[in-house]
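Title: [Solved] Charged multivesicular body protein 7 3D structure

Original question kept below for reference.
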Amino acid sequence: EVNSTEWDSKMAFWVGLVLARGRRRGAVRTCLRELQNGFERRGSVPLGLGTVLRELLRRGKLQRESDFMASVDSSWISWGVGVFILKPLKWTLSSVLGDSKIPEEEEVLIYVELLQEKAEEVYRLYQNSALSSHPVVALSELQSLCASVCPDERTFYLLLLQLQKEKRVTILEQNGEKIVKFARGLHAKVSPMNDVDIGVYQLMQSEQLLSQKVESLSQEAEKCKEDARSACRAGKKQLALRCLKSKRRTERRIEELHSKLDAVQGILDRIYASQTDQMVFNAYQAGVGALKLSMKDVTVERAENLVDQIQELCDTQDEVAQTLAGVGINGLEMDTEELEKELDSLLQDSTKEPAELPPVPQKVLNPPISDAELEAELERLTVCDGDLAQKASSASSKPETALGLNL
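Solution (posted by the thread starter after getting help):
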């Protein structure tokens, strides 16, 4: 508080350290004394841990155990935890007005996020176990199942409180025994426990007791058989007969218990089948409701009208495409009839026989010229060029004479 410039950095460091320590230990509960002992170095403890815990309480990362338990609307807290429960009014006022007091050294605090994660883990353990065949289970069986997640009984009760706060379990005490009912489905809310749930739970308990009794009688019958063998070896015939009679009586009791056990199991199978049928029925009902909502504004007449509109639009598009395709270059329209007539005339001309052509001449048009002929032709051209030059000179002198005469 004195060094305000480093308040944020120091608070961020210690907040992260406290939360990381709780997650590393896996314990949902802590207190100021336990943190001081954990962070002790060379005989010294951090003096600002109380302020850090107060900040964590303000942020909602930690919560006082008493406040948490008072926030859960439950009538079975007192038998499980055995701690002082704050009055709901006091808890409401402290929640609304805020609590800026530094927690006491022995006051129990709860890691809120870690508690939620472990409660989810308990729910997954139940869903993946054989106990999930029915939503109602004995509290003792559930505690044995969650022994790996809950290190002590107090943590187990806190996890159940968190699940009850999330409306995923409900607790009931029946004939001195506490039973837990789970919600069916990951995102479902638990329904109140009814007579059907209690009856099914009693049937399950009867099945378990009958199975244990059958197993015990089977061991007893096997023991009578071994005693009869030992008596025969020892020559005690009367004792061996009594052991055999006891064995047969035990076997008859086992058969009776087997018949009762089969009846109980048959009833349970029918109950499970009816629950499955109910789930399927609810799913069908939800599907019908969703289908009605999705088909609310859809009728056969509207569908036919829509199809007619689509067909009209397609026809219009085809006509537009044909019109655009009939336009020639530079906007000049072509007469298709004239083009067809011209094409017919071309086809008729191509079908006519070709005209008769004159025969190819056999005489060579350009016979080869010899070198002597070429030289004679060259001399002749030279002579002709000389004559032409003389004539040109004479012609040029005549005008001069004429000019002189005229002068």
